[in-house]
Structures are given as structure tokens and as C-alpha cells.
Amino acid sequence: MKLEFFADRKTDNVALKFGIIGAGQCGGKITDLFASLKNNDGHRYYETMVVNSWEGDLKPLQYVARERRYLLKGGEGCGHKPKVCERLMDDPANQEMLMEAIEKGFKDADAFYVIAGLAGGTGTGLISSIIKLIDYIKNTPLLDSGLSPKPINAIVTMPRSIDTGLDKANAVDELNRLAGMFKEGILSSLVVIDNEKSFREYVEHTKLNPNDMSYQDWMDYSNQTVVQAIHEFNIGIMYPSDLNFDTQDLKNIFEDTPGIITISKTVFEQETINSGTLIDDIISCFNTGNVLADGHDLPKAKHAGYLIVRPRNINIPQSTFNELDIRLAQETPNALTRPGSCIVNPNRDDNRLIIYTINKIVQMPKRLREELEPEVKKLMESMTGTEDALAEIAVSTTSYANAFTRGVKRRVSSKIFERTDTQNSPQNQELATQRISRADIFKRN
Ligand SMILES: Nc1nc2c(ncn2[C@@H]2O[C@H](COP(=O)(O)OP(=O)(O)OP(=O)(O)O)[C@@H](O)[C@H]2O)c(=O)[nH]1
Ligand SMILES: [Mg+2]
After folding, report:
1. pTM, full prediction
2. Domain count, the chain
3. Residue 77 Cα: closest atom of ligand 1
4. Which ligand does the CA of 77 lie closest to?
5. Residues 175, 321: one domain?
6. Which residue of 41, 103, 136, 173 has the fewest CB atoms within a 10 Å radius of its CB?
């Protein structure tokens, strides 16, 4: 996989060490790309594992360690039926296998990504159980000790226009379940890849670049795009910068307020760089450069961050960043944070200007909102509920007012007691008893 020069084995660390778990074929393939990424010393940046119900999906993987590929007992694929996967997960041997797999790994992870293509059987049937399992195994002990949980995030693909109604309904049903996990405070963020957008972009790309052999097919294009965007951002903010996008800023985006994360990227070749339009270019990167899915309303963003990679010979004056701060404040009035970073491209021969933006937003992408009606209606309602609760937090972090769900309450309380010894506080004891029980993990309600 081709990465931007600055992200390709030039630094030892990433800002967030994600522990990554892929379920089903799509989840496995995306996870395999994350597993291929290595640092200066040849060490992998991300710890990975994959789960499948069919050996044929596991075999083509190249980078995930063999001992971290798990095959469900009794599985012969789930043929687009999540229920079939649920039945496989009724088997205690499969439950034990996954529990042990998660328990023994991910010692260094700062955060987790669980990945699946929605609309199939295996990934769709497994993703919510895996999220609950990580919460139970990794986060419950932290919460019980008064420590903050590690953010659990998901990457999902949504079906194309031509996919069947049943596939779409299954995908939306699972998305609903994931939105419910926002409310419970188990899931911190969701990256939604719109496969229709990936497909169309790939067709366009091959028309313009008929000799480009970087991608096997539209799915590979989609997978590479998402992994590049996440990894390049994660590594780009580790470079020295005069601005203030640091690791904690990225953590805030993942940890604070559940929602959809979108990452955008726009590249300007040397002859098209115009410092006079830089601020507009950054705003349009937020609005239209999204590599994963189109159609999020910027004013709804809860977090809005940017990373600029500039060529050595182009200076951007501080006054431009001051103006940008003002513009961003206007464009994202509801944002809780707006971190930014500007780094110099370490490749002296590369004269392009690259803009990345990252958003966290409580809104589904436009095509999914419009096309997957009416299934999505239910989803929007549940997301709106989250937004109301979040708005309350933004106004008053000390208020435990009425509709707070377990998870939202948990996050608020962990903020309030941050600097004190919370080991045995009554609040924490109460929260510990509200935690998920093992029996609930493998049920997809
Ligand atoms: N973007 C992207 N989408 C994929 C990829 N592979 C499959 N998909 C999509 O993801 C959805 C689920 O497909 P799979 O991942 O093959 O399904 P599975 O989880 O293995 O489930 P079963 O094979 O039905 O047991 C479908 O809508 C596919 O079109 C991929 O590599 N990238
Ligand atoms: Mg499969």
C-alpha cells in the first residue's frame, strides 16, 4: 500500500496505538492493511486480530499473524445471514475462543477499532458482540479501578445502491445496534465507509489513471483509502508543529462525545497552490474532501481538526492561522475542540500541499440518510437522542439530568473525578454495578 512519504516508516510512533479486530471478509481485509504498516525499526504500529466463519476468507490475508486469525467452530460462512453467525456464537467454545483472544492481546492498545462490512453474515453478526466483549474484558477492570476506559471505535462499510433490500435492511439494523452502543457509552466513534462512493470514485480513478496498478478492485481502493487516511493522520500529528494538535487532542476526538468520525484529504499540486485561498481550501476539504462518505453538515461537528503538510518552500504566516481560527469558529459553532497542525513535508522533492481534516459529527452521511429511508429514520431518531444528551453535557458537565444513559453518565463522572482518588467513590461503585454482564455479550438484541 502506498502511503504519503511522511507516513511511510519515518517515525517510530503513532499518536494512538489502535488495537484492531476485523470480523468477516471485509473486516479481515482492512485489518490486514493495518497489519502491514511498520515503523522505522520494522515493528508493526498496530496489533491486529481477525475472526471469520469461513477459512476461505482468512487464507488470502498476508500480514495478520497466523496465530491471530480465528476461525469460528462449525462455520462454513454465514451467507449474508447475521442470524447464522449468532447461532455460531451460541457455542461456548466460540465464546471462549474470542474471550481468550481478546484477553491475551492488546496490552499496549490506547484505543480499539472493530471493523466489518455491514450487509454480510459474519462481520455484521459479530461486530456488536466483539465491541461488548472488549468493553467487558478491557474496560470493566479499568472502570472498576476508577480509571478511564479506552475508546472503542468501529469502522463499517455500508451497502451499494445495487445491493439487495435485505442486505440494506441488515446493514441498517446493525447500524441501529451500534448507535444504541453510543447511547450506552460503550462505543466512542464510528467510521462509515459508503461503498457506493468508493465504487464510483474507483471507476473515475481508473478512467483518469488507466495505468495505475495500485488497486486490485474498487474494494481494495476503498480499503486502502480508509487505512491511509487514518494512519497518515495518526502519524502526521506526531511531527513537530507550531500549532496545537497533539496526541491528547486526537484522544479527545475519540473519547469525548460519541459520533461519526470523518476524515478528508485534499492534495494541491505545486502549480495549483494558492496561499490566498488556503482558508477556503481547508473549509472545502471539511465539506467535500471526505474520503469515506459524502454529506455531513459542518455546523453539526462536535470536533473539527486539521493537519496541513506543506512543502518546505511555502511558508504560511501566523496571521493566516489566526484568521483560520476565526473562520472555523464560525463554520463549526458547536465544536467542543478545533485543534490544528501544520508540518513541513520531510520529502524535499515533494512540492504538493496536503490538507487533512477530521470531524466528529452526530449525523449519518447524506446518501445513507436519503437512500436507506425508511430504515434509517429509526436510526436518526436514536442518534438525535444522543445529540440531546450531548448538548446537555456541553452546557453543564456536572448535571446528571434525567435522560442520561449509563455510558454518558459514566463518561461525565470520570471527567468530574479525574484528579481525585476515585477508587472507592460511591459513584464508581454504582457505575461498576451498571456494567455489562458476560451473559449479555453474545446477544444481539
Ligand atoms: N469496502 C469494502 N467492502 C467490502 C469488502 N469486502 C466485502 N465488502 C462489502 O462488505 C459487505 C459484507 O461482505 P463480507 O465482508 O464479504 O461478508 P462477511 O462478513 O464475510 O459475511 P458472510 O460471507 O456473509 O458470512 C458487503 O456489502 C460487501 O460488498 C472490502 O474489502 N471493502
Ligand atoms: Mg465471508
Report:
1. 0.88
2. 2
3. 25
4. 1
5. no
6. 41
